[in-house]
Amino acid sequence: MRKSVEASADATTAQARADAATHTTDARYSPVTVANRIETLGAELRKLERRITAQCYDDTRGYLDATAEQIQARAKRLAPHLDEKRDQIAYWEAVRAAQVASGKATGYDRSTVTKGDRVKIRGQWREVVRANVKTVSVTTGYTWTDTAPYAEIQQLVRPE
Fold first, then answer.
1. Is 122 exposed, middle or buried (0-12, 13-18, 19+ CB in 10 A)?
2. Both 94 and 132 in a single domain?
3. What's the whole-model pTM score?
4. Count of helices and strands (H, E) across the chain
């Protein structure tokens, strides 16, 4: 009887862990999270690239442009980090492309969303006021507008 109770407790624990792992994986690969991750990784990559050519501070002369030797040394030192970021971006962009192809994510951007369209964001239909580079501005029913990234658009309906 004791072994039966222990086995049942172990099975319950294993099921709870499996459920937690499924939930975590679903959250990690949600379309909005993937799009946000691509944006963040892109920003980190650009920051690393700027560090290669960043100016140096000299107490007597102020900020000076980096010399060729400094740029070369920085590029060599940061090369593994740059490669890692590029690999991560490539992986998550492939995940995003697969999500768009399968219909799990929408591929809306500034070229597909225009002023006057109706979009569904977080379960609510809103009218587009302006299509920005990275976000869309929508009405709120009040005197102000809200912005949302294109990845959060669930559906789009043209005014006609």
1. exposed
2. no
3. 0.72
4. 3, 7
